[in-house]
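In line with agreed milestones, the collection of sequences with tokenised folds has grown. A representative record is reproduced below.
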Amino acid sequence: MHTVAVLSLKGGVGKTTVALGLASAALRRGVRTLVVDLDPQCNSTATLEPAETEATLFHVLQKPTPEIVRAAIAPSGWGEGVDVLVGAEEVEGLNHPDPGTNKLSRLEKALSTVHDFLEEDEQPYQLVLLDCPPSLGQLTRSALVAADRALLVTEPTMFAVSGVQRAFEAVQAEREEHNPDLQPLGVVVNRVRPRSHEHQFRIDELRDIFGPLVMPVALPDRLAVQQAQGACMPIHMWNTPGAREVALAFNLLLARVLRASRRRTRSVFAQAEEEAIEAEETELDETELDETGAEQAQPEEAAPEPGPVGRPQFMEPHLP
């Protein structure tokens, strides 16, 4: 089971969008996924529309027994393959700025039990996505203790770049103090406008700071993302040109996430250098992204009637 914390210490950069996009790509690829909604705003829970549960993350973080963990997990409304550990506004009261080791380890303990109550014929979770709040309290730090990788999310703006720097420092601090297996997966740049000189300047700035840790695939700024989330649908099921472009980017990002799960023992920057070389393999896919983006020069078409969940409406791209 591969556990990824999706975080930034700057609000509004699209952490939940990235977590949901990866869940959508995982559903498309048949990778069973558990989304853990740690943000008190509960946007992931609202978009995934799980069934009613007897418990929530609030109860799990107070007493992470297998019975309570099981009662807090429900299938999502997206279809079989994506489940939700349901969030709750009450977890804000648990977001202590300086929690002890016992409190920080509760989420890790809870996740270690999720396979114990699966049926014999059930597929185990292959990916766990931890959607973190934009603050460095107990909730985000618990995610970093439970995760083996941290995916840092930013926008190509000055303040967002500063936020991802602080998030990277938090990852390194938690790695030294509580979780030596934790490594940064990389920095993904969200809501990019290819024709913006300011965005390109900030992306270059990020590459100067983080080098090959900056993902070669950026997520384009498309209205389809808000449309799909508003309809509580996976981006892969939202059949517009903008949605197809974003879905392709998330397919490439998921491929890198899954590939990284097999490389936990190498140093962060050595692995990042290797991945930078492997990025050449995705040039064809990124060229397709550029060509698809050209369609966005015209106003994006009105959102169609959503198709049935689990029945994609466009061809699967080649994954590296």
In short: Residues 265-270, 279-284, 294-298, 306-320 have pLDDT under 50 and may be disordered. Residues 2-93+103-297 form a domain with the Rossmann fold fold (CATH 3.40.50.300).
